[in-house]
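Q: Given only this backbone (471 positions), what sequence would you predict?
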């Protein structure tokens, strides 16, 4: 006879906020945010980003979490409950973590490799040219690390919402916060005289980070900063991919949603700002302005060089940094797998353990294939969001489809569904049932009905590369 498993839940507000922050804080905060800030005019990017968090971020996070708590279901069934004709949107949303999961453990594996290098005292080797490429193109090593990371993720999911996800987030998130604060304070104290004889300090680097650079700012450039900030926001808050719907569905009815959402926004943005404070001054002191133009290579190529230039202490700072990054990636990775497991359990009426076991096998295979995308299955493709000199591999294709194409499209449709079909009162009612008041309610209504649909449409068109052909 089929036994119905009791739906898991977080113990209370703190457990929920830490788990959701665990999902939100990831490589996006530690690596993507600082490199975008460096590229997009420092303080100017920070200002734009902050405004977007308080408006778009708030609206999308509120929608996802509230849909989850109100329906007590994950994406597929949640959208069906909202409106039977819109179940397709639930299925589309479900597909985002399905795709992301194929490569997230691979990135986790890269970070795990750096943790091992630094902890075993081989941090300086990581600073040598070709170290990163050597690792990812090694078919055995890259696969082994991806598999380890995948198994670790599965074990936590296997233990359920309270005993797995919440417990792990409660330990990891405070440690992560301490580490990032410590590293950013250290970063401000650095001073280094380069080969050119110029002495640069962390404090100067900090000013570069926070001062808005308005040099040669044109409307076109501003638009591109805006779009960078917007796509960073989606990725960073883990919205529009069903993850926050699933986590919201585990929140008890007496938890104040409005307050929790504010705290998740603060946690995620705070860590991103601190990551910039940790990385930009250090990179500036050791490599000057040019060092910051490393783009995606920042985390795995430039940073190890910075740690090596620090001398002996660099081993410790490097180890602390990569341990923190591994923690951040693990809590994000479990949220991706949980969203898939939870949807499957609801659709197939299977137990958590059975579902997790089957999905683990599937994703072990997928991770192996993606990890081999840099060796056995190597090819080059230029995706619409890439510059003329860049090329992508398997991992980039998965990332492009899920983050650049599907997420803005899903946000667009779901803001239309909430704003115009079921109506924002549907959301407000749930929030007001447990919060003292729905702060920023008017803002939410205006955003969900008017601003979000328009901007999401622009973002979606932009991601397809059509815009570049028009302008
Ligand atoms: N929010 C995470 C980050 O900022 C990334 C992430 C994306 C997590 C997708 C889960 C799913 O890095």
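A: Predicted residues:
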């Amino acid at each position: 006879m089929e036994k119905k498993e009791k739906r898991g839940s977080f113990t209370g507000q703190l457990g929920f906020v830490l788990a959701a922050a665990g999902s939100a804080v990831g490589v996006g905060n530690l690596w993507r945010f600082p490199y975008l800030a460096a590229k997009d005019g420092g303080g100017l990017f920070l200002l734009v980003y902050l405004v977007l968090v308080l408006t778009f971020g708030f609206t999308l996070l509120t929608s996802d979490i509230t849909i989850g708590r109100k329906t007590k279901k994950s994406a597929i069934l949640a959208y069906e409950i909202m409106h039977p004709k819109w179940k397709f949107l639930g299925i589309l949303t479900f597909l985002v973590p399905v795709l992301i999961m194929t490569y997230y453990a691979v990135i986790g594996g890269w970070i795990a490799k750096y943790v091992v290098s630094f902890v075993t005292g081989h941090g300086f080797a990581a600073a040598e040219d070709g170290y990163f490429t050597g690792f990812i193109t090694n078919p055995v090593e890259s696969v082994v690390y991806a598999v380890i990371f995948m198994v670790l993720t599965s074990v936590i999911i296997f233990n359920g919402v309270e005993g797995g996800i919440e417990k792990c987030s409660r330990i990891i998130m405070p440690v992560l916060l301490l580490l990032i604060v410590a590293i950013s304070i250290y970063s401000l104290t650095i001073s280094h005289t380069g080969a050119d004889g110029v002495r640069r300090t962390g404090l100067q680097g900090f000013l570069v980070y926070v001062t808005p650079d308005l040099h040669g700012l044109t409307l076109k450039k501003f638009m591109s900063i805006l779009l960078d900030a917007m796509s960073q926001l989606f990725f960073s808050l883990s919205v529009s991919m069903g993850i926050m719907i699933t986590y919201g569905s585990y929140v008890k009815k007496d938890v104040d949603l409005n307050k929790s959402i504010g705290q998740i926004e603060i946690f995620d943005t705070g860590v991103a700002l601190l990551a910039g404070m940790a990385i930009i001054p250090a990179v500036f002191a050791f490599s000057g302005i040019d060092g910051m133009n490393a783009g995606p290579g920042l985390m795995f190529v430039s940073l190890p060089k910075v740690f090596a230039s620090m001398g002996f202490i660099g081993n410790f700072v490097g180890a602390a940094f990569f341990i923190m990054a591994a923690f951040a990636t693990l809590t994000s990775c479990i949220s991706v797998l949980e969203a898939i497991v939870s949807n499957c359990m609801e659709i197939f009426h299977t137990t958590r353990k059975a579902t997790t076991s089957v999905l683990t096998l599937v994703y072990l295979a997928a991770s192996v294939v993606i990890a081999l995308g840099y060796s056995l299955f190597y090819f080059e493709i230029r995706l619409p969001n890439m510059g003329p000199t860049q090329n992508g591999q398997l991992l980039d294709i998965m990332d492009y489809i899920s983050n650049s194409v599907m997420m803005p499209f899903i946000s667009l449709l779901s803001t239309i569904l909430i704003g115009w079909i079921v109506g924002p009162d549907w959301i407000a009612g749930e929030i007001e049932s447990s919060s003292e008041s729905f702060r920023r309610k008017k803002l939410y209504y205006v955003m969900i009905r008017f601003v979000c649909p328009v901007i999401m449409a622009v973002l979606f068109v932009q991601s397809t590369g059509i815009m570049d052909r028009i302008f």
